[in-house]
Amino acid sequence: MESCNFLYVNTLVQDYLKYICQEAQLSAAPNRVAEVLRKAGSSAQREVEDKLRPYVDSLEIHSVEGASHVFSQVMENEFVDGEINWGRILTIFLFGGILAKKLQGPLAKENLKQISYFITDYIVSTKGKWINENGGWEKGFITKFEDRSSWVSLSTLKTKILAVFSIFNQYHS
Predict the structure, then answer these.
(1) C-beta neighbour count of 129 within 10 angstroms
(2) pTM (2 decimals)?
(3) Does position 169 have pLDDT exceeding 70, yes or no?
(4) DSSP assignment, residue 29?
(5) How many other CB atoms sit within 10 Å of the CB of residue 43?
(6) How is domain 6-172 classified at the CATH fold level?
(7) What is the mean pLDDT of the chain?
(8) Can you give the residue ranges of every domain in the chain?
């Protein structure tokens, strides 16, 4: 069984960010978890980005350091109640996708590596224990998101992301 080790999670994060930024559209996902993550995440990603467009457009992020700062603040708000579930784990990837798209440009490839690093570090250091205790990626995440009928819970997830982002935006407008 895979664990929540840094290299495994970094593979998932990098693949997802590349896929969302359309760098990996033609390549196969590196594993089944990444494939399910691509499908579940990209479905929610488009809708979340459309709903968050005013907030995302107003974000002044010009560096990986700025993205890391914003990421930390949004994640702090997202998990302030201490509640963790697979939908909230998915929000980490969705928000990472938003940040990666904000930093596309001449340094996009290097930015993606650095963004994937701080996202991976966050997942492993703050959510790794929960992930392992809840079936890991193979049994927990795939079970939750492989069947499209469970994606109904994504609407709740999208609402939560909008609320967190609007709170964050109040402090940075």
Answers:
(1) 12
(2) 0.86
(3) no
(4) P
(5) 14
(6) Apoptosis Regulator Bcl-x (1.10.437)
(7) 86
(8) 6-172
Please report where in the chains the tokens 């959510």 appear, as a residue: 127
Q: How many Cα atoms within 13 Å fall on the side-chain side of residue 61?
A: 25
Question: 115: closest CA among 127, 126, 103?
Answer: 103
User: Is the pLDDT score of 50 beyond 90?
Assistant: no
Q: Show Cβ contacts of residue 76 under 8 Å, excluding neighbours closer than 6 positions.
A: none
Is the C-alpha dihedral spanning 65, 56, 46, 123 positive or negative?
A: positive
Round to whole Å and give the CA distance between 2 and 84.
20
User: Does residue 87 contact residue 156 with C-beta atoms inside 8 Å?
Assistant: yes
Please list, in sequence order, all residues whose beta carbon lies within 8 angstroms of the beta carbon of residue 143, skipping any fewer than 6 positions away: 135
Where on the phi/psi map is residue 59: left (φ > 0), alpha (ψ -120 to 50), or beta? beta
95-123 pLDDT per residue, tens? 999 999 999 887 888 899 999 999 999 99
Structure tokens at 171: 């402090």
Range 113-140 average pLDDT: 97
Distance, in Å, from the CA atom of 21 to the CA atom of 13, rounded to the nearest integer, reads 12
- The answer to whether 102 touches 112, Cβ cutoff 8 Å, is no
